[in-house]
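Fold sample X.
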Amino acid sequence: MPDKEITSAVKYVSRMKPEFMLSEIRDYVKGDVSLADIYRTIQPLAYDMGIRLEPAGGDYRARRLPAAKSLILNESERKAQEEFLASPGVPDRLEKLIEKYVGKKTGKSWSDPAVIGKLRNAITGQKAEYWKEGSKRRITYETGYSILGYLAYQFPVYFIQSEHILFELAVDGLLKDRMKMLDAGTGPGTVPLALIDIYRRIGRGEAVVYSLEKYDENAEAFNALVPAYAKGTGVKAEKPMRADLRSLKMDELPDNVDLMFFSNVLNELGGDIERKAGIVRGMADKLSKDGNIVIVEPADKASSMEMRRLVVALMNKGLGVYSPCSFIWCVRCHPESCWTFQEREDIRPTRFMQKVAEEEPFKFINTDIKYSYAVLRHDKLSREKYRVPEKAKFARLSRMKDHVGKHINVVASVMSGDLGDKNDHVYKICDGTSAKPVYAILSDYHISPKNEALKAAKYGQIVEIYGVLVRYNKDYDAYNLFVTRNTDVKAAGIEEPHQ
């Protein structure tokens, strides 16, 4: 019996009836077809067809689902996630699953001295590779202890940073109450576990998670951790598809993906920017029309700058940038010297990490969160909708050489946290035009109600700065814009109240 005929029959019946038994489909197809054949055909298509299949005795009940919509968090749901991220750490339930997996994998307690000793060696080797650049860099997870080392050292930070990014998407209305996710280079399931954790905390949300993974050890860890942690939530995790992104067959990927993640994976592929852009752009064809692609890379200078160049290459291939960059002058940026990253609150180390770090905390404690990221889409939607008005009197940051020693007005995105010290607050700013780095500098002595909006600005937020002094920093080939107590700083696009 052709699968196409079965699929057409299910579509027809689901339009006519909000609920039906899957065995009823036999009445709508020619010939003799078994319930098992019908289920085998429909089960992988059920999500896209908008139906849910539930076992019912020896049959399956098919329910027509309402159309997916934005997952809008209410006040209590937002508060619950904000409180978690204010002092973040891997939840105890997940910690125990990881400890149990380590014990099963090694045949010993996760805290056994022999296990901990091997983990320290694995982590030391991984860290040495992370700091290499270019063709000398080779990061693999081909051995059991390499992935166990990752779970002890890198996983907690990547897990929490994924929650930060997913929560931002939810706050912006970009997650759906029922969605399809694809995680490329999933490892032990770091991003899916973060999504599960958010849905578990807010108590709602459904997702089907697909993933790509190259290494056997990572896939084994995924299958041990992700389905177990997803129990009791609306997340269903399919087993990872075994694939190398560099030789991926696009026709094997699911269609209509709502959220596609590349977390700390593209920098490990090697090769040039255009090749990586080609991989991402090819996979983007599997994205739904309002879907999102998230690219995350480490905050080190080489990885961060390469990611920004990759984003521009993807723009040249037709994708739009939602955040954190905004092109307020409606021109392309110059990412050759763009080093910008998000910084978040430190995490609480896990029991596993603390055990590994008992003898050398400085070497094996990893709690700071710094990352570079971008969210891309097929459409032109942007988090920051502000564009410089046609007759506005702002100087482009690309023209700072013409204004050295002068007080001018600028408008730009705040693209860093505070990079300074207790005396001088330093923020990287960008308007998409400058090839040289530009920083806004606010001395503690000069903080006033007129300029405190600079310190309060969120990562990627656009601010208007009036009366800032321009200086050139020869040592760093950059421009410093000095904010004084008489400088006005305000969020862009907000009208002042009438007096």
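Fold sample Y, listed below.
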Amino acid sequence: MTKAGEVEGRAGPPWWWARRRDVVVDVALAAVSAAECAWEGIRFAHEAGIPVAAGVLFGAVVGAVLVLRRRWPIAVVLVGIAVAPAEMGFLLSVAGMYSLSSSEVPRRIIAALASMSLVATFVVMYLKTRGDVEADPALVVALSGFVAVALTVPPVLLGLYIGARRRLMESLQERADSLERELSLLADRAEERAEWARTEERTRIAREMHDVVAHRVSLMVVHAAALEAVAVKDPARAAKNAALVGDMGRQALTELREMLGVLRAPPKPAPAPVPAVPAVAVAAVAFAGGGGAEDGPSLGELEVLVGQSRTAGMTVEMLVHGEWAAYAAEVEQTAFRVVQEALTNCHKHAPGARVVVRLAHRAGEVAMQVENGPCDGQAPEPGLPSGGNGLVGMRERVLALGGVFVSGPTEAGGFKVSAVLPTA
């Protein structure tokens, strides 16, 4: 981890400086201040009666203290106040007060040191002016006060402004970094939600394709097996079975074509804002086949569905209880798919078994049940593979609409699939 101001592959600035440019600026100011104080040290040496070399060296050391203005601004200001009686350190005092005011030092300390510098400058100017100018004492006081204020107040005000501006920029930078992190987090979450939506959509499409194809193809395989068995003995029945296989194949292709048409259709314009819809209802529409539910199968087609299974050689009895009513498209489609998939499983796993389909219309709900008895000794058709997704798909469809789904073996040795869907 590199320090502030460091460049990758290079060493950062030395000591307390954050940037190399700051080093150059401070060293240059300290050099100018040392030269100024050294020059003023000559006069100070004559007035103090000390060797000139000592006065020059003293001035140079005092002026060079300015190089510490970023690290110890209080010390620089105190040195400037201490050498004020020697009438040296003009740049030291001005730059020191600016550095102190723009630093993170508490305001009360800045005010105290600024007051001390103001008083020191005023006293020095008053003593110097009183001895060199023959004028009214009030004029001397006013002139001394003006010089003291001019040398102290502007650096302090400028330093306070620069410090406040720097802190504001740092705060804005921190806020921008925080917003950037939040936006990055939101983008990650949006990507996760989009991936979840893509996964759900792929699952929905796969389930719909399974429902459309599995039943038709299962019946086609059953009829093809029957056709093979009676092709020589009963040509008329063989021709009938062949026609049924062709009809079912065309129906399967038609349903697949309709589904692919829905998938390829351009997206519809966004509708006007509507009140919030419960998540269960949204999920129900999606699982029910979304985007084309009004064109899907309905409960009115159950008789045709059961008739196809009877034609395939299955003994199917259909019992309807209650008065028939029109339900929402997703409810009718889900009910139809549950019965369809249950009959498909009977073709696959219980050939020759007697099947009972029950449909009950109740107040606020519709119930369906498909129950098959034990097999009559026939082995499951090897040409009808099972992917194990039928029951899972039925359960997801029913639960998405807020219904109840139960499946499992019966005491008589068969299998039962039951579902209850709310119609509200």
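Sample Y note: The chain is about 65% helix and 10% strand.
Also: The chain has two domains: 20-184, 185-262+278-422.
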